[in-house]
Amino acid sequence: MADKATLELIENHVKNHKIFVYMKGTPEAPMCGFSAACVSVFQRMGVPFKTFNVLENEAVRQGIKEYANWPTIPQVYINGQFVGGNDIIQELYRTGELQKLINA
Amino acid sequence: MTELEVKQLIEAALPGARVEVHDTTGTGDHFAARIAAPQFAGKTMLQQHQMVYQALQKYIHGSQAPIHALSLHTSVLET
Q1: How far apart (Å, rounded) are the C-alpha atoms in residues B79 and B46?
Q2: Residue B3 and residue A64: Cα distance in Å, rounded?
Q3: Are strands B30-37 and B69-76 parallel, antiparallel or unpaired?
Q4: Could you report the predicted ipTM of this complex, rounded to two decimals?
Q5: Does any CB of chain A come closer than 8 Å to the CB of residue B12?
Q6: Could you tell me if A95 lies within 8 Å of chain B, comparing CB atoms?
Q7: Mean pLDDT per 10-residue run, chain B (79 residues)?
Q8: How far is B68 from chain A, CA to nearest CA, in Å?
Q9: Which residues pair with B47 in a beta bridge?
Q10: CB-CB: which of A70, A83, A91 is closest to B53?
Q11: Long-range contacts: A80-87, Cβ < 8 Å, 24+?
Q12: Could you check whether the bond before residue A74 is cis, i.e. omega within 30 degrees of 0?
């Protein structure tokens, strides 16, 4: 069960940034193929985004799974809403839906 | 876990679905699944993926869980 401080931290992350990605590693040094693929989509689109390396914080790593009711990483939030993991982001990017979400 | 085990778990949770599971690294812990299910009708990708994760909950959560990665492609199965 995530503690209040962790949940507040997560809440602040996702509400204060248009695009927020919980990933393993960093955009410069991703530690997982799915995290890397996910971040590269936003890099290609040239949109600003913020990331958090869950490998550095076990409480957040577990907290986000509860918060989004989603068991895996990466996790992408846009406009404060959980959008999905890498598979969903790739599909939304392919169809043009992702750009629409970001423009909203 | 084996591809068959993962496939059967998904089939049990989504009767009537067409399921393909592939072990992406050969180590029994990274899988990719393609699922076409009638139960996905009217649901967003997010909801569809969450349904699959629900079915495999026990095997994904926790540091001892056998599944480390699960890549999903879901679609509606027209019956």
Answers
A1: 22
A2: 28
A3: parallel
A4: 0.84
A5: no
A6: no
A7: 96 97 95 97 96 92 84 93
A8: 8
A9: none
A10: A70
A11: A80/A14, A80/A15, A82/A14, A82/B46, A83/B46, A84/B45, A84/B46, A84/B49, A85/A34, A85/A38, A85/B49, A86/A34, A86/A35, A86/A37, A86/A38, A86/B71, A87/B45, A87/B49, A87/B71, A87/B72, A87/B73
A12: yes
Is B24 in CB contact (< 8 Å) with chain A? Answer: no
Neighbours of B34 (CB within 10 A): 14
**Euclidean distance between CA atoms A2 and A4, whole angstroms:** 7
The predicted structure's pLDDT at residue B64: 77
Query: Could you count the other beta carbons within 10 Å of the beta carbon of residue B36?
Result: 17
* H-helix or E-strand spanning residue A21: strand A19-23
Give this prediction's pTM.
Answer: 0.91
Query: A71 with B60: CB under 8 angstroms?
Result: yes
Distance of CA A41 to the CA centre of its chain: 12
Tokens found for residue A49: 């985004």
What is the structure's pLDDT at A57? 96
Amino acid at position B20, single letter: E
